[in-house]
Amino acid sequence: MNKTAYKDLCNKSVFLLILTVSLFFLGNSEGYSQSEPVPGQTDPSASNSSGVESGKSDSQKKPGDVQFSPQVSGTKIYYEGAETIGRVGHEAILKRDILHQLRKMAQLQWLHVISSMSEEDKKTKGPEIRKQILKECLTDSKIYTETLDNYIRKLLYYNDFVVSRPKEQITEQNKKLTDIFNSDYVPEIMKQFHCKTYIELEEYYKKELLSTLEQEKRLFIQDTIGSSWLEFNLGSDQFKPTGVDLRRYYEAHMDRYKVDARIKWQALSVRFSNHPIKQEAYNKIVSMGNYVLSASSPEEQKKRFTEIAKKESEDFFARDGGVRDWTKRGALNSKIIEDAIFSKDLPVGALSRILEDDMGYTIVSVLKREDDYWKPFVEVQEEVRKKLLEDRKDALKLEYERTLSKRFTIELYTVGAEEQQRRFQTYFKQSQSATGRELK
């Protein structure tokens, strides 16, 4: 699913910069001491090591992903719309928060899709497209898992911030972010959803997303604080890789700098589907090959190859003289043809033997060949430096998440496929389509 519109809205680099400045240079050094837990909350440092079932299959997990062991409990209902589907430290994972993110993603995707449609198509096709996108977001297990995983990680960072800062600084930070939300973030949302006033936006959230701006603000504050706290804990890396460090990293990751072999070639083709019997197809490819081979010089042979391909060849490239552009291994459907053009036994300019595959007969000729090679170190030195620092930061993040997973209790309550389908049907019936609104 195209998530461009959603990612654009969620890009808060400006907000993170403001937060970083105000958050970490506001108080004195005492601000980094452990504060008392909020009343009614347990000390996270006394929590048992625990975890969360990410919902990913082994094939979906990325190398180095933090993996947790779940503590499974029964679903808890506190009040209407606040069903708890899990918990991260002191913070509950509410069903409505996950559904809000999924519905928002779907709505932005839908608005992006219909933006290029005519007014008539918006009215006739728009509602069905919206329903399809919404269903995908609410029932696709991969989308659901990615959204839940990202939210769990942000709540881990947020929990660490809450227990690491004085209460008065947390209150002050919430106030600052509320101001940023109202002054900067809300106008961006209004543009995305084509709302002209704050009241209109509130109504839009109520009808289209079945949520509120207050819920959006709470998620915004958690997300922004969590992201900034992560950056703060990773710190400003003072590591300055030497030339030896870069060379070792380059040698350890040579495959990243490999340029695969590629071939520029042309072919004469005869398709079985164009002939009543196989022998007829074979006779034609023999005749075409002999015409090329009877040329008096290599230059004349190349000229004849192009000429007969345009007149007699039976594939899409015939009009171009059978010439194919640069081709790498794995790009062709026919392994027989691919093996032939990449064979060292076929010199540039020579004609291959007659090749037979499921489609028909083919004769190929290599026009140009570039073998595998590795980009030299001096050419990619700056690229190596950036990648080394990026990998180092990922490793620090992984270690930080592992530490947090041991400090904060993380639970997920089972949500089956039938429940996800029921949610889609229920929430879609409750929602009111935005297709009746004037979109500009």
List the helices and strands and how they pair.
Layout: H1 4-9, H2 13-24, E1 76-77, E2 83-88, E3 91-94, H3 95-114, H4 119-124, H5 126-139, H6 141-164, H7 167-192, H8 198-209, H9 213-234, H10 243-252, E4 258-259, E5 262-271, H11 278-293, H12 298-312, E6 323-328, H13 335-341, E7 355-356, E8 360-370, E9 373-374, H14 377-407, E10 410-412, H15 417-430
Antiparallel strand pairs: 1-2, 2-3, 2-10, 4-9, 5-6, 5-8, 7-8
Helix pairs in contact: 2-7, 2-9, 3-5, 5-15, 6-9, 7-9, 10-14, 11-12
Mean pLDDT: 79
Total strand count, please?
10
N-to-C span: 24 Å
Count of helical regions: 15
Low-pLDDT sequence parts: 12-64, 68-80, 427-440
Please tell me what the overall shape is: elongated
Report the sheet-strand fraction.
5-15%
Gyration radius from CA atoms, angstroms = 31 Å
Largest sheet: 4 strands, antiparallel
- As an assembly, this protein is single chain
Helix share, percent: 40-55%
The secondary-structure class comes to alpha+beta
Order of helices and strands: HHEEEHHHHHHHHEEHHEHEEEHEH
Please supply descriptive tags for the structure shown above.
alpha+beta, 4-stranded antiparallel sheet, 10 strands, elongated
